[in-house]
């Protein structure tokens, strides 16, 4: 299957910004593939809020904001609306936040969710892959 529109979860963005090994390399390749026009990167406003919360503690608020502004050149930020909350509340997902991410990704026709937290997406009808697994499909 060809995956064009990828939804990035918080842990993937944190791997990218904090250069967490051994995952950083794979996130860099995702960005390169996006810049080349081979894939579209998407995330949600909820992921952005969660990411900046963690980043500001690690690198400071100025650097955190700078990182996210740079991301906006490559990734599209999807809105976090009530329908995602409503669906998540009615779902069988064990992790509420991941349920919200799934419903946002589904609403915006994402082809895959990229995360390191695959176990919390067991009820997903969208393929869920790590960055490394996705890159192995190219």
TrEMBL record:
Residues 5-119 form the PIN domain. This is Putative nucleic acid-binding protein. It comes from Mucilaginibacter oryzae. InterPro entries: PIN-like_dom_sf, PIN_dom. Signal peptide: none annotated. It comes from the Bacteria. Gene3D superfamilies: 5'-nuclease (3.40.50.1010).
């Amino acid at each position: 299957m060809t995956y064009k529109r990828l939804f990035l979860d918080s842990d993937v963005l944190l791997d990218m910004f904090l250069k967490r090994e051994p995952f950083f390399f794979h996130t860099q390749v995702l960005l390169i593939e996006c810049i080349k026009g081979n894939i579209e990167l998407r995330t949600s406003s909820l992921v952005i809020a969660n990411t900046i919360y963690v980043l500001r503690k690690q690198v400071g608020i100025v650097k955190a904001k700078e990182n996210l502004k740079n991301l906006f050149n490559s990734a599209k930020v999807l809105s976090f609306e009530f329908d995602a909350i409503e669906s998540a509340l009615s779902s069988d997902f064990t992790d509420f936040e991941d349920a919200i991410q799934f419903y946002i990704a589904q609403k915006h026709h994402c082809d895959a969710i990229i995360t390191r937290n695959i176990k919390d997406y067991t009820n997903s009808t969208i393929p869920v892959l790590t960055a490394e697994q996705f890159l192995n499909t190219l």
